[in-house]
Amino acid sequence: MFNCLPALFALVTCLLCMGFQSNAQVQLFSVLKADATYKQSTFKAIEQRYNDDIGQVKGDNKKYFKEIYKQRFDYIKSNFDMEGIVTDPAAVAYINTLVKEILVANPALQALNPRVLLYRAWWPNASSLGEGTVLVNIGIVNKFNNEAQLAFVLCHELAHLYLNHSNNAIDKYINTVYSDEFQKELKKISKQAYEKNRQLDKLAKSIAFKDRRHSREHESEADSMAIEFLKNTSFDLQQSGTALGMLDSIDNDKFNIDPPLERYFNHTAHPFSQSWLKEPEAFFGGVQHSEDDQQILDSLKTHPDCKKRVQYVTPILTRYYKPGSKQFIQEQSFREWQQVFDREAIAYAYESENVSLALYYALQALDHYPDDTWLMAMVGNSLNRMYVAQKKHMLNKIVELPSPYREKKYNRFLHFIQNISLSDIAAFSYYFMDERKTTGIKNETFLYALINSKENYNKPAEKQEWISYYKTNFTKQNFTF
Q1: At a CB cut-off of 8 Å and minimum separation 6, what does 241 contact?
Q2: What is the pLDDT of residues 222-234, one digit of tens each?
């Protein structure tokens, strides 16, 4: 399920493959616990596997294989360094229960000694990195209806590992890019006086679209192998087809609503203005895409070709049908972790300096969990951070800009942010937090947001009053003022 198209463009241009790196901060707002011992032991095992792989590389292109293996290792390391990997003992134990159900039923997978790690990322995806590590984003766990659907995704990624798809793709890439034919074409382009960039882009796309075709073949192979693995477990195999069908629209928001902005940001002393919701009239219209652009957009979709994949696996699922299988092993735990991950995805977006998305998700979730003080706090914290950034003329560092390629509801929200002023942001936070202070005063994160809202709205006396309350009622303090 891992989408490598952006990396391919970078690889062809500069012959490097760089993974995503967040700018996550200290986990002040995480709702999960951190286990330093688990983090250290897991990373040590990954590092040992990397050293073993490097030691076994041979052949004329071994230099390039080592480079990509190192970049893959650095990508994993960056996720540990940026606190992206879930180390909470209870969360780790939960996902391992599902993994164990699969491994015990499939000795061939046990022999691979895989490591399935939860990743705090909000986007719905899972990826097999090829050296034994499988990353499962909490953003995909939240979207499924039952554990059998999640188990299918686990089996799918383990199938990629079993079939060695990632390493085969690396091998194919290196043998293509460093072939005599490709290098001659690069040299030819480098000597051109005009349209050098266009020719490089064309060359990059030719590889990317070939890779896309092979990648989708690998997805079908992994689907079929996943079913072979899942049928050996107690999970309901029919949920595989349901899960694949859900993946076609899984990029949509979890709660799939426009945040009720007027309800939250309308106050007698600072009335809501409809002008804040205004969008450019032609923003969503008239965007034309070339055939290549359409291919790129399709490739950038997190889970392409799902409808075709459902059609492909349906006869297999019918053949393997067995009554009495289960949708859950631990239904209550599954539901509870989904609620936890709803919040954790917001925390990670905030830490990763995507504050506009954190605020958007927090407002959506608050409509679903209206009494949740942590969500109230994250609305306030996001607004406060936006205020500080805007005051420094650095709002673009933490707030995304509208784009025709974004989800429409999120675009409407981004237009709203572009339309409000510095004083509006301060007023939103102040009145939003002040109206809820009776509910939230026992929550330390809420108080942090409340006190900062007083600072930003220039209420020094109120700020000092709440600092005194905080210091009196919280002996172990995580925040300083």
Answers
A1: 310, 313, 314, 317
A2: 999 999 999 999 9
